[in-house]
Amino acid sequence: MSVLVRACAPSNIALVKYMGKREGNIPENPSLSLTLDALHTVVGVKRVEAAAGWTLQCAGLDAVALERATKHFERVQNAVSELWPSFGLQAVGSAQVSMESHNTFPASSGIASSASSFAAMTLAFLAVLTKDPQLFKAMWSAPEQGRALRRLAARLARQGSGSASRSFDGPWVFWEGEDAHSIQSHLEEVAHFVVLVSRAKKAVSSSEAHQRVKTSPLWAGRPERALERASEIRAALLAGQWNRIAVEVWREMWEMHSLFHTSVEPFSFWEPGSLEVLKEFMPLFADGSPGARNEKTRIPIVTMDAGPNVHVIVPLTEKSMWQEKLRCTFPKYEILKDGQGAGACLLEVSS
Ligand code: PMV
Predict the structure, then answer these.
(1) Burial of 7 (0-12, 13-18, 19+ CB in 10 A)
(2) Cβ(6) – ligand 1 distance below 6 Å
(3) Is 338's C-beta closer than 6 angstroms to any atom of ligand 1?
(4) pLDDT tens column, 105-148
(5) Separation of 18 CA from ligand 1 center, angstroms?
(6) Residue 112 CB–ligand 1 contact under 6 Å
(7) Which residues, listed in sequence order, are joined to residue 43 by a DSSP beta bridge?
């Protein structure tokens, strides 16, 4: 008998960044993100019974990605055999598992592909390593059991890639210490764009960036500043104050990239096009600009991840206007379009 599972997890874009970590991918500061929707990873896994032991085959992964995926599989397998009895589920004892994965966007270019990949892998592994995957699926969709399973999944995914823990909930997610969960907001629904300056794979991995930023003279006080900013944005989300968020997110993006630029040795994810795009938005955030002073005109929420591409978040009601504006202002670059999402889900479970 074989079992097939397909899980989908969206990427997320941090408004307050997770940058700097401790053992087990415990962040130095809380972070806050928007869960995306169309920019996601789909992981398909197939389980075939085996008399004893485990094998995992992963199609199309390079050596580094394969090692991370195998380690993550073992992590989920250990968790399942230890914890499933307390959830009333049974773990599979041995099997041959094969995995396929694809992203709807370019990987490793600052659109948090590790977040969506590890979230999707975690959910797919959890389901496929359960004797009765249909029962797992039913529990995942049930309100209370689902919450407990999502919490477990987010914790496991975090150990593979920290930001993956924010891809199980949505649209606004707060992550502090071991746990990430959605937070209340009175902000209107949003549209999200990426100005795709480059598809090139980034030269410095985020794992390395997490270590290097601690050598920057700007690291002193960074966890405290990020904590304060996360609290400020959380309060602004609750109050539905768009521009208060936009101004803080803009500052946060410059701060994270300044950490990169002042590390020993300095490094940068920026391409000439990144600065070209940022400069277009700069006047909107100038002290005297109407958007930065009041809530009458919405200024876009602009940020960058650890990559050269620029993320732009606008009210959904202004989506077409901004799409046209971005297209005309940056004719050289592809514009990816997305919206807010609700987190990882199971697309298919069949046996
Ligand atoms: O989850 P990691 O280790 O790939 O780190 C992600 C770090 C940033 O994407 C730069 C920021 C964030 O909070 O997502």
Answers:
(1) buried
(2) no
(3) no
(4) 877 656 768 999 999 999 999 999 999 999 999 999 999 999 99
(5) 6
(6) yes
(7) 7, 101
Confirm or reject: Cβ of 31 under 6 Å from ligand 1. Answer: yes
104 lines ligand 1 (CB under 6 A): no
What are 237's two structure tokens? 């989300």
The topology under which CATH files domain 2-184+342-350 is Ribosomal Protein S5; domain 2 (3.30.230)
Does the model's pTM come out above 0.90?
yes
Q: How much of the chain, in percent, has pLDDT values that exceed 70?
A: 97
Q: Can you give the residue ranges of every domain in the chain?
A: 2-184+342-350, 192-339
Calculate how far, in angstroms, residue 92's C-alpha sits from the geometric centre of ligand 1.
32
| Beta pairing, strands 21-22 & 26-27 | antiparallel
Instruction: Tell which CATH architecture fits domain 192-339.
Output: 2-Layer Sandwich (3.30)
Per-residue pLDDT band at 271 (split at 50, 70, 90)? very high
Whether ligand 1 lies within 6 angstroms of the CB of 160 is answered as no
- Best mutation site among 12, 19, 68, 116 for ligand 1 pocket (most ligand atoms within 8 Å of CB): 19
Polymer length in residues for the chain: 351
Nearest-atom index, ligand 1, CA of 21: 3
Q: How far is the CA of 19 from the centre of ligand 1 (A)?
A: 6
Could you tell me whether strands 190-196 and 310-315 are parallel, antiparallel, or unpaired per DSSP bridges?
A: antiparallel
* Burial class for 83, CB neighbours closer than 10 Å (0-12, 13-18, 19+): middle
- Distance in Å, CA 309 to ligand 1 centroid: 14
Other residues' Cβ atoms within 10 Å of the Cβ of residue 173: 24
| Residue among 348, 292, 321 nearest 140 (CA) | 348
